[in-house]
Amino acid sequence: MNNNLAEIYAAIPHRPPFLLVDEIVARDSDRIVCRKRFTGDEWFFAGHYPDEPVVPGVMLCEAALQAGAILLGSKNPPTSAAQRSDDADSQTMPVVTRMNEVRFKQMVRPGDTIEIEVQLRERLGEAYFFEAKVTCAGKVSARLEFACMLVAKSEATP
After folding, report:
1. Where is pLDDT greater, at 6 or 93?
2. Domain-located, residue 158
3. What proportion of the chain, given as a percentage, has pLDDT over 70?
4. Which residue out of 27, 35, 48, 143 is catalytically annotated?
5. Does residue 64 sit within a domain?
6. Which residue segment(s) compose the domain that 121 sits in?
7. Whole-angstrom Cα distance, residue 34 to residue 10?
8. Please, which residues bridge with residue 2 across strands?
9. What total number of domains does the chain contain?
10. Residue 157 belongs to some domain of the structure
11. CATH code of the domain covering residue 57
12. 62-96 exposure pattern, b = at least 16 Cβ within 10 A, e = fewer
């Protein structure tokens, strides 16, 4: 596993086939830019649409949500069970609470690479408010605003 993917895995619980971020391109305290390449082998292309495959818009939104979660993961790094402290942030995970102003502009197809830019706009307690832009070949494919909250991780073990 490359270092960038290890960093993504450390920040969010998503894993293939539902991991929609391949790499972190840039990041500062309130902004992250990530990339995802769609190979054509993704499970959703089999039915969306078989003769004219297109990345579902909801997957572009999910890629933005995951990028936002990675940004929050860097603000609230996870700890292993052996390293857990009383720090509440180490016991939480981000969960989306809303999406607003979702707009789809450009289709994304197999072989395309998207760039996902997410900006943290505001924090109110454990609620975080973001703006996101997904581009493909320099053209906007999707824009959205979303919010998430940090919620307690389940202590249940399988």
Report:
1. 6
2. no
3. 85
4. 48
5. yes
6. 3-152
7. 15
8. none
9. 1
10. no
11. 3.10.129.10
12. bbbbbbbbbbbbbebebeeeeeeeeeeeebbbbeb
